[in-house]
């Protein structure tokens, strides 16, 4: 386990070093030959995304380290609303540019208004299907209610985006989406009886889940594609970074070794008093293995 | 969940059955006091200081809590999920196959399950 993390960390560091070397090289070219170098216009929306991420991380850390009684007060200082104003302004002042696309992708993920999220996403899908900002927007798609349109849009991005990391993110969100709604689809009759679920998913959503035929082979193939083609893609959501190659490897491990009918892999570790034991010590008994936490 | 598990431990005390936990709380001291307070008698692995990102839950690709697996006497997986009537049904079936007839539909158990829901765990 530890080794695997080291390897991934090493990959990330290598990639990071690699890109900074390229940047330096690009700058040198610029100096040597200014007339022939096309300098891309910087995207102020990307800067704003970085500033938001830093502000949000700082905000989350303040919440985490605060006493429970102070949290409600600190929660009012969430930078989201202030940044939403800035992104709205950037989007409206920079129509038909990558700046608008980046700002819309942010709003689709982070707006506090559901209708604004939906309209930002719809504009992204219609006007900017080839934008690199689609990486962020793909995450916003799966945060909404399940629908045929969401599934189709993710498939379209995965097939057509010119950017490998957008395709990687689309593959990852699509497979996570299919995996999640597969099990929910199996309980669709229970859902249809539950007024809260009907209210949440809507009649259309319930019908969609009822008809959703998830192919296990497709799920496995999508995870394999991610490991093969997109293993270094990192997606970031609400301050948490996920290396999708690593997640896909874990998911494939679960499919291969943790499905019903498999003999469970052993667990060796310490109990809460520090005494070592193993899951296999309990062979001969029916075991309820319970991943729990008191929160 | 605790009342349901306490009830299983109690009702299946003389049967070849065990609950093994994997606890994913970051703070070991505070969870030790919870274990005492809430009478959690079953043994748990501790997932380490990284909490829900710890090594055991990561290796098992656990993304939702609680996640429950039911294993037979050979360690074969018969159930995985997050709760519901299938847990008791699987345990009864597996113990039955080993020659232990058990009935978990008693009043005690039902009450424990209601307490579960009230606790919202």
CATH class of chain B: Alpha Beta
Q: What percentage of the residues of chain A does DSSP assign to strands (E)?
A: 5-15%
Question: Looking at CATH, which topology of chain B would you report?
Answer: Glutaredoxin
Number of domains of chain B: 1
CATH superfamily of chain B: Glutaredoxin
Mean pLDDT of chain A: 86
Estimated radius of gyration of chain A: 23 Å
Largest sheet of chain B: 2 strands, parallel
The description of the largest β-sheet of chain A is:
2 strands, antiparallel
Query: What order do the helices and strands of chain B follow?
Result: HEHEHEEHH
The beta-strand count of chain A equals 5
Low-confidence stretches of chain B: none
Q: Return Rg of chain B in Å.
A: 15 Å
User: For the residues shown, what is the average pLDDT of chain B?
Assistant: 88
Distance between the termini of chain B: 5 Å
Structural class of chain B: alpha+beta
Instruction: Output the strand order for the largest sheet of chain A.
Output: 1-2
Shape of chain B: globular
Oligomer: heterodimer
Strand content of chain B: 15-25%
Short key terms for the protein model shown above:
heterodimer, A: 295 residues, mainly alpha, two-stranded antiparallel sheet, 5 strands, disordered N terminus, B: 121 residues, alpha+beta, Glutaredoxin, two-stranded parallel sheet, 4 strands, 41% helix, 17% strand, globular
Describe this structure in words.
The complex is a heterodimer of chains A (295) and B (121). With 295 residues, chain A is mainly alpha-helical. Chain A has two domains: 46-128, no CATH class; 132-264, no CATH class. Chain A is 66% helix and 7% strand. Chain A has 13 helices and five strands. Chain A has helices spanning 2-32, 44-65, 71-75, 80-93, 98-110, 114-127, 134-143, 148-160, 164-186, 188-193, 195-211, 216-229, 244-257; strands at 234-237, 240-243, 268-270, 276-278, 286-292. In chain A, strands 1-2 form a two-stranded antiparallel sheet. In chain A, strands 3-4 form a two-stranded antiparallel sheet. The radius of gyration of chain A is 23 Å and the shape is globular. Chain B has 121 residues and is an alpha+beta fold. Chain B has a single domain (2-119), classed as Glutaredoxin. Chain B is 41% helix and 17% strand. Chain B contains five helices and four strands. In chain B, the strands form two sheets. Chain B has a two-stranded parallel ribbon. Chain B has a two-stranded antiparallel ribbon with strand order 3-4. In chain B, helix 1 (2-11) packs antiparallel against helix 5. The relative contact order of chain B is 0.19. The mean pLDDT of chain B is 88. Chains A and B meet through helix 13 and strand 5 of A and strand 1, helix 2, strand 2, helix 3 and strand 3 of B.
């Amino acid at each position: 386990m530890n080794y695997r993390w080291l390897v991934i960390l090493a990959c990330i560091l290598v990639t990071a070093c690699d890109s900074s070397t390229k940047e330096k090289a690009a700058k040198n070219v610029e100096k040597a030959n200014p007339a022939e170098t096309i300098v891309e216009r910087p995207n102020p929306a990307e800067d704003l995304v970085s500033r938001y991420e830093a502000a949000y991380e700082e905000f989350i850390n303040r919440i985490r380290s605060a006493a429970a009684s102070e949290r409600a007060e600190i929660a009012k200082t969430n930078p989201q609303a202030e940044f939403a104003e800035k992104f709205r302004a950037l989007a409206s002042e920079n129509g038909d540019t990558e700046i608008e696309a980046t700002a819309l992708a942010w709003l689709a993920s982070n707006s506090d208004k559901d209708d604004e999220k939906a309209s930002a996403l719809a504009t992204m899908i219609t006007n900017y299907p080839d934008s690199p900002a689609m990486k962020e927007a793909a995450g916003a798609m799966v945060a909404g209610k399940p629908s045929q349109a969401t599934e189709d849009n993710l498939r379209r991005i995965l097939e057509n985006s010119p950017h490998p990391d957008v395709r990687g993110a689309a593959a990852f969100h699509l497979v996570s989406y299919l995996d999640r709604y597969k099990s929910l689809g199996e309980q669709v009759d229970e859902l249809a009886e539950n007024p809260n679920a009907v209210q949440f998913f809507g009649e259309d959503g319930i019908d969609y889940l009822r008809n959703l035929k998830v192919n296990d082979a497709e799920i496995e193939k999508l995870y394999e594609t991610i490991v093969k083609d997109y293993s270094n893609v990192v997606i970031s959501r609400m301050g948490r970074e996920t290396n999708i190659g690593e997640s896909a490897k874990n998911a494939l491990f679960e499919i291969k070794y943790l499905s019903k009918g498999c003999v469970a892999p052993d667990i060796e570790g310490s109990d809460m008093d520090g005494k070592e034991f193993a899951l296999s010590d309990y062979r001969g008994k029916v075991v309820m293995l319970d991943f729990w936490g008191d929160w | 969940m605790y009342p349901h598990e306490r009830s299983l431990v109690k009702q299946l005390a003389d049967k070849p059955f065990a609950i093994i936990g994997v606890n994913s709380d970051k703070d070991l001291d505070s969870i030790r006091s919870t274990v005492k307070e809430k009478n959690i008698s079953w043994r748990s692995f501790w997932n380490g200081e990284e909490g829900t990102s710890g090594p055991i839950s990561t290796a098992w690709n656990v993304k939702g809590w609680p996640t429950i697996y039911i294993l037979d006497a050979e360690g074969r997986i018969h159930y995985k999920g997050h709760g519901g009537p299938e847990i008791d049904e699987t345990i009864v079936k597996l113990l039955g196959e080993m020659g232990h007839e058990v009935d978990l539909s008693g009043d005690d158990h039902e009450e424990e399950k209601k307490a579960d829901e009230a606790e919202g765990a």
